[in-house]
């Protein structure tokens, strides 16, 4: 079968493309401009005509994906803005919602052969700041960020603007499915990852060109930081495990209609400093000082094991080792 992957030149999507190709699928990658094609063509050259690209210049335009969805059996919608420098929250919210709805509308309009749509949402659409530590599940929705953005607009925290875009886009997708349930011939799977780390295969010539999460990982391991920052954290998943989850979400019939958290566990940055290869001159902090951490936020990843059939997630040691090796192979100095 053929699978459309949007935002194919991004950190996560590039791994989704590779995992799909390795599993024997044909892939059509959608990118915003022709300039994003060369590196991808080179990366996936060995797969021959199993990999093709299409340019979709503006995902917020009506009918933007009409051509892209033609003749595909499934869609992995990964493209969405993830940065923390939006003034107007609509810089994030509009492409997040309209990209999601647009692709569903294009698939519906053309009565394509699409059997399944998978959307990369986020734990940002799940977590809330609670007074006590909490383990969140797929039943939880982040109402806080949307409320903050509604009340404060441009003055909302940057992270809240991004989180609101993910909540609203995911809700729009589920609402679309409900509204069109008698017409659609596919089912929807939503994946909700926390922070995503790991080596990159998309175009990242310099550390500055890394996407938001990989960039933060690089900064935290290579630059001095305060004890307070080293003892702050979140939850995480390796980008390769997330890429594989996108294939499992396509393959497993029982995933249809499900919202699924894809998380390897909780961390504070000191844990990564402890897990990083000892041979590297990285920041070290105070080794072992995080062992009694009480994590404010955790996720119940049971569904990812039971429904997706993920056997085990990569460990921090493996992710840290491979990520640092990747920086080294690129000749990055720190
Ligand atoms: P990247 O920034 O590497 O990739 C984002 C992709 O989306 C790029 O292809 C980018 O295209 C595209 N994109 C961004 N804004 C627009 C827009 N306005 N119109 C069209 N395309 C756009 O980030 P990630 O790979 O990390 O993110 C991919 C997805 O994963 C996103 O949906 C994100 O919300 C989600 N996610 C990421 C997490 C993480 O920790 N990294 C955690 C949880 C979810 P271009 O290169 O042209 O800008």
From TrEMBL:
Keyword terms of this UniProt record: Oxidoreductase
NAD-dependent epimerase/dehydratase domain segment(s): 3-262
Presence of the UniProt keyword Oxidoreductase in the record: yes
Alphabetized GO MF terms: oxidoreductase activity, acting on the CH-OH group of donors, NAD or NADP as acceptor
InterPro entries (alphabetical): Epimerase_deHydtase, NAD(P)-bd_dom_sf, NAD(P)_dehydrat-like
Taxon lineage: Eukaryota, Fungi, Dikarya, Basidiomycota, Agaricomycotina
Species this protein is from: Favolaschia claudopus
Family, per entry: Belongs to the NAD(P)-dependent epimerase/dehydratase family. Dihydroflavonol-4-reductase subfamily.
Sections of the chain in a coiled coil: none
Name by which UniProt lists this protein: D-lactaldehyde dehydrogenase
């Amino acid at each position: 079968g053929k699978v459309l992957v949007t935002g194919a030149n991004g950190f996560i999507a590039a791994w989704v493309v590779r995992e799909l190709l390795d599993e024997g699928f044909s892939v059509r990658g959608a990118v915003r401009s022709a300039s994003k094609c060369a590196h991808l063509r080179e990366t996936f050259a060995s797969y021959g005509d199993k990999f093709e690209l299409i340019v979709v210049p503006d995902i917020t335009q009506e009918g933007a994906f009409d051509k892209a969805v033609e003749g595909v059996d499934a869609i992995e919608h990964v493209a969405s803005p993830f940065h923390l420098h939006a003034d107007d929250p609509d810089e994030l919210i509009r492409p997040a919602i309209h990209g999601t709805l647009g692709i569903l509308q294009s698939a519906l309009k053309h009565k394509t052969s699409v059997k399944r749509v998978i959307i990369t949402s986020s734990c940002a659409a799940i977590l809330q700041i609670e007074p006590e530590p909490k383990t969140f599940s797929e039943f939880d929705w982040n109402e806080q960020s949307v409320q903050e953005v509604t009340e404060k607009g441009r003055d909302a925290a940057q992270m809240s603007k991004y989180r609101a875009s993910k909540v609203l886009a995911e809700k729009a997708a589920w609402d679309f499915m409900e509204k069109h349930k008698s017409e659609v011939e596919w089912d929807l799977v939503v994946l909700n990852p926390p922070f995503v780390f790991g080596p990159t295969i998309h175009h990242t010539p310099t550390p500055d060109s890394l996407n938001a999460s990989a960039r933060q990982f690089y900064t935290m391991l290579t630059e001095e930081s305060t004890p307070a920052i080293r003892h702050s954290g979140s939850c995480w998943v390796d980008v390769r495990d997330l890429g594989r989850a996108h294939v499992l979400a396509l393959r497993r019939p029982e995933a249809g209609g499900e919202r699924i958290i894809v998380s390897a566990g909780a961390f504070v940055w000191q844990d990564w400093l402890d897990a990083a290869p000892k041979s590297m001159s990285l920041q070290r902090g105070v080794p072992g000082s995080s062992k009694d951490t009480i994590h404010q936020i955790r996720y119940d990843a049971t569904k990812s094991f039971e429904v997706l059939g993920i056997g085990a997630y990569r460990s921090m040691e493996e992710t840290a080792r491979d990520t640092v090796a990747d920086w080294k192979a690129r000749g990055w100095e720190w």
